[in-house]
Write a structure and sequence with these properties.
- This protein is of the alpha+beta class.
- The chain has a single domain, classed as Beta-grasp domain (Ubiquitin-like (UB roll)), CATH 3.10.20.
- It is built from three helices and seven strands, in the order βββααβαβββ.
- The longest helix is centred in the N-terminal third of the chain and has 7 residues.
- It is globular.
- Bound molecules: FE2/S2 (inorganic) cluster (FES).
- FE2/S2 (inorganic) cluster (FES) binds next to loops.
């Protein structure tokens, strides 16, 4: 099972959890009470539909997740970034969360 290390850019706190191979990052984080959103976006997000962009995260290494989806390309996110709700995990990764105000 891949290991996720989450670095909170607001608090500096780090948390880790495991996810099933090919699991959805947002769903797995939410199930463990780990918040990927900054401020009110925790409540005002699109709930994983890919439209709001508030679940933006930075990921390393990118080889351990799926490629950018069409929705992520429409959001014009950076090469080292993904939307948490559009991310499937295939190996150990470290993410930086809470990037969007
Ligand atoms: S939750 Fe809105 S784009 Fe991911």
């Amino acid at each position: 099972m891949p290991k996720i290390t989450v670095e909170d850019t607001v608090t500096g706190k780090t948390e880790t959890f495991k996810i099933g191979y090919g699991g959805n990052l947002r769903q797995a984080a939410e199930a463990r009470g780990i918040n990927l959103y900054k401020g009110m976006n925790e409540y005002l997000n699109c709930h994983g539909m890919g439209s709001c962009g508030t679940c933006l995260i930075e990921i390393a290494p990118l080889e351990n997740v799926d490629g950018h989806s069409i929705i992520e390309k429409l959001h014009k996110i950076g090469d080292n970034q993904k939307l948490g709700c559009r991310t499937k995990v295939y190996g150990d990764i470290t993410i930086k969360a809470k990037l969007v105000d």
